UniProtKB/TrEMBL annotation:
This is SRPBCC domain-containing protein. Residues 40-147 form the Activator of Hsp90 ATPase homologue 1/2-like C-terminal domain. It comes from the Bacteria. InterPro entries: ASHA1/2-like_C, START-like_dom_sf. SUPFAM superfamilies: Bet v1-like. Belongs to the AHA1 family.
């Protein structure tokens, strides 16, 4: 994909992958880091109040320390230290993952947000999709948060609000392709064979609608 077609907002996020071979599965730790132009106290309610979560992430119900999110994900709150630390069990299907979000204040009034997702992924799934299978959804979520809060305004970025209609558009496909490329590069940096990482890039982009007519690698 030509560099000129890469949306600038894609690189407002730093992505890191760590991999641990567990035999039948791979422990995949994906980290997303970005700077948001609000203080932690302003961002915390956006992450913890269901009515505000719905405005950028989707419907979330919370009761007695448990939650259920859009798409069938559910789990429990393991730690909550307002307005800086949130750790959840993130469960879907038979998976029980660890999800941690940190909001650290910066001297200029902004916040460094770090999201870390740890998942044990079967080898056949990782070899097909790479880290994008679990990580690209968080790119979409951070884009939604930034669009809803204007939190990348200091970067002078045009930030679209992701929706199902937007993801199905060519603009949405451009973002999906760019995110998939970034996760493949992070996977190579973590030690994944480049051919395997490239296959994961293509299959992840296709799964999210970024590639409609590209043959499998």
């Amino acid at each position: 994909m030509p560099a000129s077609s890469t949306p600038a907002a894609v690189d407002a996020v730093q992505r890191i992958v760590d991999l641990e071979d567990l035999g039948p599965s791979v422990r995949v730790t994906t980290s997303l880091r970005t700077t948001l132009g609000d203080a932690p106290s302003a961002l915390w309610p956006m992450l913890t109040r269901p009515a505000l979560l719905e405005t950028w992430y989707g419907p979330v119900t919370v009761a007695d320390g448990a939650f259920e999110a859009v798409g069938g994900a559910h789990g429990g709150v393991l730690e909550a230290e307002a307005p800086h630390r949130l750790r959840l069990s993130w469960e879907y299907g038979t998976n029980v993952d660890d999800l941690a979000i940190a909001l650290d204040p910066e001297d200029d009034g902004t916040t460094e947000l770090r999201l870390v997702h740890v998942a044990d992924v079967p080898h056949e799934v990782f070899d097909r999709f790479g880290p994008g299978a679990t990580a690209l959804g968080w790119d979409i979520a951070l884009l939604g948060l930034a669009a809803r809060t204007g939190a990348w305004r200091e970067l002078c970025l045009d930030v679209p609000a992701p929706s199902a209609v937007w993801l199905a558009s060519e603009d949405g496909a451009r973002y999906v392709r760019a995110w998939s490329i970034r996760w493949a590069a992070a996977s190579v940096a973590a030690g994944t064979d480049e051919t395997v990482a490239r296959r994961g890039e293509v299959e992840t982009a296709r799964a999210y609608g970024g590639l409609r007519d590209v043959a499998a690698v």
